[in-house]
Amino acid sequence: DAGVIQSPRHEVTEMGQEVTLRCKPISGHDYLFWYRQTMMRGLELLIYFNNNVPIDDSGMPEDRFSAKMPNASFSTLKIQPSEPRDSAVYFCASQGGYEQYFGPGTRLTVT
Amino acid sequence: AQKVTQAQTEISVVEKEDVTLDCVYETRDTTYYLFWYKQPPSGELVFLIRRNSFDEQNEISGRYSWNFQKSTSSFNFTITASQVVDSAVYFCALSRRPQAGTALIFGKGTTLSVSS
Question: How many CB pairs under 8 A join A and B?
């Protein structure tokens, strides 16, 4: 079985640009999580979905961030407009039982 | 509030040494789950183990072992006869009800460097 797939793996963009990160969860998993990893704050939850419905978005930093899950096999995290402080590794994880399985992450650099 | 503390920021050992990574957690829940994840230099997060709060049995998997002690709120991870491939960042994490999809609360991680 394929694991969690994220694209792109690396993204470099200029401040003010829109950035879209993509995630394909493991088939059959009904939970999907977006986490952000930075040196200062470590790994922190941004938002998670259950059966495509957003359950908790309290970790989303501000209105510049939005996430969608239009179907069971696809989710996006969008940042508009991007800022240098958004530079981080963004992980998507899916869960079908007790464990969360993580994708390889997207390393975002905003200059 | 829930919190996970990994006091060791970095550990360096020589191959074949045993090493223990400490994890202390805080929670008011009576039911909770603890996890360890490994993040190798390639960057992905790899699930290693899950433990629930009612199961204090130690677990061994090859060179890896875990010691869960509710009395001290600790869930420590020991690697026996370490190898260079064990070099990674190791994260301890806590969850209230993972079967209901609650988020993982991660510690800051311990960077383990194993030299040959």
Answer: 53
Question: Taking CB atoms and an 8 Å cutoff, what residues of chain A touch B98?
Answer: 95, 98-100
pLDDT (0 to 100) of residue A98: 86
Which helix or strand (DSSP H or E) is residue A101 part of? strand A100-102
Q: In chain A, what is the greatest distance between 2 CA atoms, to the nearest angstrom?
A: 39
Q: Does A33 touch chain B (CB under 8 A)?
A: yes
pLDDT at residue B11 in the model: 98
Tokens of B74: 């600790």
Backbone torsion region of residue A91, taken as left when φ is above 0, otherwise alpha when ψ lies between -120 and 50, otherwise beta: beta
Who has greater pLDDT, B16 or B99?
Answer: B16
The Cα-based distances of A96 to A27, A43, A85, B5 in angstroms read 9, 21, 32, 27
The whole-number pLDDT of residue B98 equals 66
Chain A touched by B54 (CB under 8 Å): no
Name which of B36, B44, B92 to mutate to probe chain A: the one with the most chain A Cβ atoms within 10 A of its Cβ.
Answer: B44
Answer for the pair B50, B34: CB distance below 8 angstroms, yes or no: yes
CB contact under 8 A, A100 and B98: yes
